[in-house]
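Entry 14. Structure prediction run on the chain below.
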Amino acid sequence: MNTTESKLEQAYHANTGRLVPGIAHELNNPIGFVGSNLESLGKYIEEIQTFIISYESQLTATTKETFQSAVQKADLEFILQDIKELSDESLTGVMKLKEIVSNVQTHSLSTSNGSSRLSPDSILKREIDFLHNELKYSVTVEYVGNETLETNANERELSFVIQYLISKCFEEIEGYGSMVIKLQEDEADCVISINSTLQECNDCKPAKLLNKENKNLCHLITEKNKWQITHKNNEHELRINRA
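Output returned:
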C-alpha cells in the first residue's frame, strides 16, 4: 500500500471512529421507545385476557355459550396468545440490539480523548430527553438547570457519566418514583446532583439499565478526569472542576 492510500485509510478509520458513537447514540432513542412500547403492549394484552375471563364468568349459561362461540369463530384466544409471544420475541430482540449499541458506545468512549469548553446544562437536557422513553411511564423528572455555567470536559465522557448516574437512580427506585436533577455552581466546581424518591408500587418489576461494564467505564472516566462522585442515601452528586 502506498503512502497516499495509507493516509486515506487512516482518515477513513478516523472519520468512522468519530461517526460510530454518534450513530450509536441516535439509535438508542428509537430502540428505547420501541422497547417501551412493546412492554406496554404486553401489559395491555394481559389486561384484555383478564377482562375476557372476568366478563365470561359473569355471563348466564345461554349468553356464555354465545360468547364462547364468537370467541372461537374469531380465533381470539390464539390471536391474543400469538400477539403476546410476538411481542415478547420482539422485545428480546430489541434488548439484544440495545446491548450491542451499549457495547459500541463503551468501546468508543474507552478510546476517546480531547476536551473542550462546553455547557453541562445542554448535555443534561439532552440526556434527560434521551432517557425519557425509559422513564416516562413511571418516573417524574424535575430539572433545575443553569444555562450560563460552563466547564472543560470531554463531551462524550461527560454524557456517559450523566447517563450512568440517572440510570443508577432509576434502578434504585425500581423504575417507579421521582427524580430531582440540579446543576449548580459551587466555587470552582460544577455540581450535578440527582435526588431520587421511591414510590410504592406493588406490581412493579426491578428496573435494569446498567451492567458491570457501564460501572467500570464510569469509574475509569471519573478517575481519569479527577471528577468526584459521592453517594449519600438517595442522592448522587457529580463534582467537576471547571478550570
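The chain has a mean pLDDT of 79.
Filed with the rest of this week's runs.
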